[in-house]
Amino acid sequence: MQSLPDLAAERRRNAALTYLLRNAADWNEAERTSLADSALGLISDSRFAAVFGETSRAEVPIVGRIALRGRAPAFVSGQIDRLVVTPDEILIVDFKTNQAPPRTAGEALQAYIRQLALYRALLGKLYPQRRLRAALLWTETPELMEISAPALDAELASLGAGMAELDPATGRS
């Protein structure tokens, strides 16, 4: 799903099937076609237009340190599945595949919330004037589940963390 949105719509299906033939050769044709159709359906779903639109980027690396109260700063390194950057806001999206989503954002696994909270804290220093949002994209249902700012803040606080001290030029604190 990371490179298909960058292709012209008429080329996506062939690219998806070619990729799966090369990387999932032990799957049968029906399985590969089903997965390709699922990925293409997500990308073309109007509910997710911003996630896969022109202002989004795939697999964005992120590195920095988070200040912790009474402890050494925590090093954070990861990769954001989709990052949407507009003049007014930043949307961090993490894909969750092959899983049925919880009924509510409050039931999402703590590890998922923690990951989004850490990414949001790091990006807060790079984009201090923009609203920062974070969401989980459940690919099986499909559903975009936004995690509230208070939930992200609470998770960050539970780590004893403050906002990241990140040098935008180097990506390090």
Low-pLDDT residue intervals, each spanning 5 or more residues: 163-173
Following the backbone from N to C, one meets helices and strands in this order, namely: HHEEEHEEHE
CATH class of the largest domain: Alpha Beta
Gap between N and C termini: 31 Å
Features:
173 residues, alpha+beta, Lambda Exonuclease, Chain A, 2 domains, 6-stranded mixed sheet, 6 strands, 34% helix, elongated, disordered C terminus
Notes on the structure:
The protein has helices spanning 9-23, 29-44, 110-126, 149-158, and strands spanning 56-68, 71-85, 89-96, 131-138, 143-147, 161-164. The protein is of the alpha+beta class and 173 residues long. The chain has 2 domains: 4-44, no CATH class; 56-164, Alpha-Beta Complex (Lambda Exonuclease, Chain A). Helix 1 runs antiparallel to helix 2 and helix 3 (110-126) crosses helix 4. The longest helix has 17 residues, at 110-126. The radius of gyration is 18 Å and the shape is elongated. It starts with 8 loop residues before the first helix and ends in a 9-residue tail after the last strand.
In short:
The protein is an alpha+beta fold. The protein is built from four helices and six strands, in the order H-H-E-E-E-H-E-E-H-E. It has a six-stranded mixed β-sheet.
